[in-house]
Amino acid sequence: MIHVDEQICALLKQREELSGNNPGFPPFEYISQWAATYELYEDYLKVIFGTFMSEEHFKPMVDPAGFRKHIPVLKSVVKGAFFYTLNSFKTIR
User: Fold this and answer.
1) C-alpha of 42 from chain center
2) What's the domain range around 26?
3) pTM above 0.85, yes or no
4) Predicted confidence (pLDDT) per residue in 76-88, tens digit
5) How many domains does the chain have?
């Protein structure tokens, strides 16, 4: 089973490289076909492919070198049709 898990990891990496880090979502028709072919639930496959869309949530946050602290600002401004908010900024040594 470990060999299969490793193949899944290799395929995930291959999919990431082929997509240029833009995973997209396969058409539902394909998901329906794959579910029938491999005897899997469609909703299960949709969840798996949906997880690919949120990979950025799992990447570690990197603080800049010399990070000291966050300073809360909480300021907002409207410029034309846009609403901008600055929550905080980071101080660096």
Assistant:
1) 21
2) 2-58
3) no
4) 999 999 999 988 8
5) 1
